Amino acid sequence: MAHLNIVSRSISLIILIGLFYACNYNPKYKLPYIGQQTQEDGSIVEHTIRPFQFIDQDSNTVTNKTFGGKVYVTDFFFVSCPSICPLMTKQMLRLYRHYENNPNVLFLSHTIDPRHDTVGRLKRYADKLGSVSSSKWHFVTGERDSIYSIANDYFIAVQDESNNGEDPNKLIHSGKFMLIDRTGHVRSFCDGTDPKAVDHFVFDIDQLLKEKENPSR
Amino acid sequence: MFLVSGCREEFVQGRRLYEAKCAGCHMHDGTGLNGITPPLVGTERSYLDELPCIIQFGMFDTLQINGSTYTDFMLGFPELTSVEISNISNYIAFRLLNVKQPKYSPVSVQLRLDSCMKWRKPSPVDPKKDTIRMFQSI
What we know:
The structure holds two protein chains of two kinds. Chain A is an alpha+beta fold. Chain A has one domain (38-210): Glutaredoxin (3-Layer(aba) Sandwich), CATH 3.40.30.10. Chain A has five helices and eleven strands, in the order H-E-E-E-E-E-H-E-H-E-H-E-E-E-E-H. Chain A has a five-stranded mixed sheet with strand order 7-6-5-10-11. A two-stranded antiparallel sheet of chain A has the order 1-2. In chain A, strands 3-4 form a two-stranded antiparallel sheet. The longest helix of chain A has 22 residues, at 2-23. Chain A is globular, with a radius of gyration of 21 Å. Chain B is mainly α. Chain B has one domain: Cytochrome Bc1 Complex, Chain D, domain 2 (Orthogonal Bundle), CATH 1.10.760.10. Chain B has helices at residues 2-7, 12-26, 51-57, 82-96, 106-119; strands spanning 58-59, 63-65, 68-70, 74-75. In chain B, the strands form two sheets. In chain B, strands 1-4 form a two-stranded antiparallel sheet. In chain B, a hairpin with a 2-residue loop joins strand 2 (63-65) and strand 3. In chain B, helix 3 crosses helix 4. Chains A and B meet through helix 2 and helix 3 of A and helix 2 of B.
């Protein structure tokens, strides 16, 4: 009898420990820092998104300060996209609805066709999606070169062989969603055209939201 | 048994073509993207009579579906044959819409295409030059 008692006690102890770890944020499982580390003054610096400045659908200036202290999800698309953009926008809209009431999550969609995607066109696109707040989901345009160079920082492959925008079939971009943390580091990504991958991405976003603002490393 | 059931999958070419040509905008389940690409499922009005013509020649009308307005146009797919169009149409009708109606056949599709050649609106863009919303070879 005593033997059974010990077994049941140890089992319940294991379950309790399991519950404790399941309910608490465990730094062991924290998301990795993606990208190459560099050394500055003897300390290791993780890959960081460089400062940027774009214009969003309300003609407001959007910089990296807009996203300071916030977690954000970013992608690259264009309005007259003939292939995967509607799939991506649909999944992004799903994420937007999921985090609609969470002020710590923002969204940033870059157009890779700034020649055609003016502020007005981005505004119409955002309005058509239905009640999308421009302070939460920024559709941005800007100088072509700065958009294509910031894509490198996000590890997004983009290519423009459209012959000055005449053939949109040759504007090529990856369909990845990238997750950026409060201090501008890339922490996770997923295939934005795959609903199941986006389901899993939600766990990553939740995990990142549980991190302290300045994680001690 | 599994082999046989695997071979018996219906609408194989229709599904493949749908996923290559249509799903990018209308989604794999045909729900579309509200305000930007119209849904194929859950529409008030049936479009099945015009479906082969829309696939081949495109859609240039402003649409009102379930309270949303769709102003962007869709270019047709002139490269598709009547056999391929009947396969896509059957996939949309039977798999996405679950309608019970006589299937499209290549002959019936060809007859519809011949008749709508006469009344359809000319494309507002030059299909040779303007490939903007053509969904070629994804």
